[in-house]
Amino acid sequence: QPVLGERHPIQGPRMGIPVGEGSIEVKELIEIQGRQAYHIEMRGRSNDVLSAFYPIRDEVHSYLDAETLRPLKFEKHQREGHYRASEVVWFDHTTSTATYESLLNGSTKQIDLPKEFQDLISAFYWFRAQPVQPGQTLEVNLYTDEKIYNTQIRIGPIQPLELLKRGTFQAFTAEPKAAFKGLLVKRGRFWAYFTADERRLPLLVRATTPW
Q: Is residue 51 helix, strand or coil?
């Protein structure tokens, strides 16, 4: 279960050139569509160095059913370079449809959904609840950019990971295999490191980029 007040700061690299910071936080428990829901917020922004030629200002909200952890609502306000997005999506699990609305031009559309799916933030909490083993591959249907992407998540071996000023942890990597516009991986590869205990705490993210 998400923990109210749980916050994971996302900082730039300890070596090389820092380019920005962000966080994922469980904000509050509220009512959505008559259901109790966790409000989870993700923010990311580039610092002055990167913003000089590629400004990033991302704010994403996901509302998860407190009982089932299924996403009920997804909201995104995004600026990455020249790319802009501002949208809200309501998920109806009884009809397996999503109602999408662009807050930039007012357009709306209905999107068919599979029975089981996650959005980009709910997938993070879904994954932490899975009983994974090294070498395993998980599959999840991810909603993003008005589409469903069938995504494979490859689990790496358990190895010690040393983090400056935080100590050494037994950890494994999770590498999603899919392409998303903007928020995860547009081109390149992406790895997330989690503790190998039952908490599945996120420790480190690495990514290759077009640069």
A: helix
pLDDT digits (tens, 9 = 90+) for 43-54: 989 888 888 888
For residue 52, the 8-state DSSP code is T
Other CB atoms within 10 Å distance of the CB of residue 55: 15
Q: Which two tokens stand for residue 14?
A: 């300890």
Distance in angstroms (rounded) separating the CA atoms of residues 170 and 92: 39
Residue 12 near residue 20, CB atoms below 8 Å: yes
Residue 8 β-bridge partners: 24
Distance CA(190)–CA(19), nearest Å, equals 17
Q: Residue 208: which residues within 8 A CB-CB, separation 6 or more?
A: 188, 189, 190
Instruction: Write out pLDDT tens, residues 136-157.
Output: 999 999 998 899 998 999 999 9
pTM: 0.83
Q: Phi and psi for 127 in degrees, rounded to 5? A: -65, -40
Whether residue 99 contacts residue 82, with contact meaning beta carbons closer than 8 Å, is answered with no
